[in-house]
Design goal:
By secondary structure, the chain is of the alpha/beta class. The protein is 25% helix and 9% strand. The protein has two domains: 3-158, Ribonuclease Inhibitor (Leucine-rich repeat, LRR (right-handed beta-alpha superhelix)); 159-199, no CATH class. The longest helix has 22 residues, at 172-193. The termini are far apart.
Length: 199
């Protein structure tokens, strides 16, 4: 489905100026451009365009109230200066799985003074040495990069139910640690029983 049609569908007979959240994931945009979105979406606080083959943000309308922008799994490699101009109050930006290769592509985000959280999972930039330190240095306003702060503490909103879930369903990092501990325990148990257990 094309992005323009998807927007009409998501409106569900509401006026664009009443909409606060718009999810356009997995629709299609022509020529890698945003289409069908305009300045009438004045109250939009969350906009999600995950996996829509987006290459450019040039046609992003003025969205002064926008706080959260989800752009994972697209082909964006730069042009992020548009964000500070069009979405000055952005607090969360997800660019995971895009073509962000180096720090220069992110410099424009310095102008997003309210930005607290940035996601860059599966972007080439994450293969650079000390990329986390470099990004925290470049974007001093952000608290969380890929869900963790500079001290590797997890962002609160992603795991507030941890207390009930610690029996196995905690956050992925915890799970991995628990998994390796359980693996060690299984090995020890197997040795105690005198039988070999395949890993």
């Amino acid at each position: 489905m094309e992005m323009r049609n998807r927007i009409n569908l998501e409106l569900r007979n509401r006026a664009p100026e009443e909409v606060t959240q718009l999810v356009l994931d997995n629709c299609r945009c022509d020529n890698g451009e945003i289409e069908g979105l305009n300045d009438t979406f004045k109250k939009l606080e969350l906009l999600s365009m995950i996996n829509v083959d987006l290459r450019s943000l040039a046609r992003l309308p003025n969205l002064n109230k926008l706080r959260k922008l989800e752009l994972a799994n697209n082909r964006i490699s730069g042009g992020l200066e548009v964000l500070a101009e069009k979405c000055p109050n952005l607090t969360h930006l997800n660019l995971s799985g895009n073509k962000i290769k180096d720090l220069s592509a992110l410099e424009a985000l310095q102008n997003l003074k309210n930005l607290k959280s940035l996601d860059l999972f599966n972007c080439e930039i994450t293969t650079l040495e000390d990329y986390r330190e470099s990004i925290f240095e470049l974007l001093q306003q952000i608290t969380y990069l890929n869900g963790f702060d500079q001290e590797d503490n997890e962002a609160p909103d992603s795991g507030s139910e941890d207390d009930e879930e610690e029996e196995g369903e905690g956050e992925e990092k915890e799970e991995e640690e628990e998994e390796s501990v359980r693996g060690e325990k299984r090995k020890r148990d197997a040795e105690d029983d005198g039988e070999e257990e395949d890993d």
